[in-house]
Specification:
With 292 residues, the chain is α/β, with parallel strands linked by helices. It has nine helices and eight strands.
Length: 292
């Protein structure tokens, strides 16, 4: 499995405050308010692999809407549908220690592993985050949202795991094909999956001077910290320090001692992950309030 941590983590508690309706042809979880007012900005929340099936995504979207006052849209956008949250439990079962001499325990582990592969392999085949079909669906949706905003309202993008790929890549796109206006006015992503470094970081920042934040998990199993640090060095060389120098604003923060998925699937009771998730949430909220 290319990214086992993409399918691990905990389930959040809390009752979603928004509702689901069809928006631009896709079931969309809407929180904050149903419509954008003349001055209200909107955030598109690109989920992890579990989409709207996992309550964590809705609860976190609610937190963004409450803290910023903006409308938050969470589209059911993953081609072929999201991963079943049942995989979270299966991954825990796979990782549980079993004695080599516990024959029944080993048989159960093999059976669970086969169940996981039966779910994960088709998902990766149809919905790997870097696939053109995934990126096109995310881009088309964002452009439709942007086109419907009132003058003065801005569009943000937040992405997690699978969705981090989407939010970075739409940030490198114009509001309309061939245009010069940026599509995304502020971007936050945490532990993005399937990205190409340094290109995806550089393009998200440079193409349209989009303000970009990346929350990186130090122990990410697929996106190595060294790669992220080298990409940040490339950005500094190309555009400056990210604090407005040459008109570019970006921030790359490494969260120590946490793994891929921490910001949206922190395991309850794991203090380091819970603290990291809270800090990443506040980082995103502050960024969106600043730029939107």
């Amino acid at each position: 499995m290319s990214c086992p941590d993409c399918f691990r983590g905990g389930r959040a508690t809390g009752e979603p405050q928004g509702h689901i309706e069809t928006l631009y042809g896709l079931p969309t979880y809407i929180t904050g308010t149903s419509t954008a007012s003349s001055t209200q900005s909107t955030i598109i929340f690109y989920t992890d692999a579990f989409g709207l099936e996992l309550v964590n995504n809705k609860v976190l979207a609610d937190a963004y809407a409450i803290a910023t006052g903006f409308r938050v849209l969470v589209p059911d956008i993953i081609p072929g549908g999201p991963m079943s949250p049942d995989v979270l439990t299966m991954m825990d079962q796979m990782g549980a220690p079993v004695s080599l001499f516990n024959t029944w325990g080993q048989i159960k582990r093999i059976a669970v592993t086969l169940q996981v592969m039966r779910l994960v392999l088709p998902f990766l085949y149809r919905s790997y985050p870097g696939y053109a079909a995934c990126n096109k669906a995310s881009l088309d949706y964002a452009r439709k949202v942007k086109a419907d905003l009132h003058p003065g309202a801005k569009l943000g993008a937040a992405g997690f795991c699978w969705g981090g790929n989407q939010s970075l890549r739409v940030s490198a796109q114009p509001a309309v094909e061939g245009g010069s206006e940026r599509l995304i006015d502020a971007q936050f992503c945490a532990h993005p999956s399937g990205i190409k470094l340094p290109d995806d970081f550089v393009n998200a920042v440079m193409k349209f001077k989009t303000p970009v934040v990346v929350a990186h998990a130090e122990n990410d199993s697929t996106l190595k910290t060294k790669q992220v640090e080298e990409s940040e060095a490339t950005l500094r060389q190309k555009v400056g320090n990210g604090q407005g120098e040459n008109g570019f604003n970006y921030e790359i923060k490494i969260y120590k001692g946490v793994a891929h998925g921490f910001s949206v699937r922190a395991v309850p009771g794991n203090r380091k992950e819970e603290d990291g998730a809270d800090e990443a949430k506040e980082q995103a909220i502050a960024w969106f309030k600043r730029w939107l």
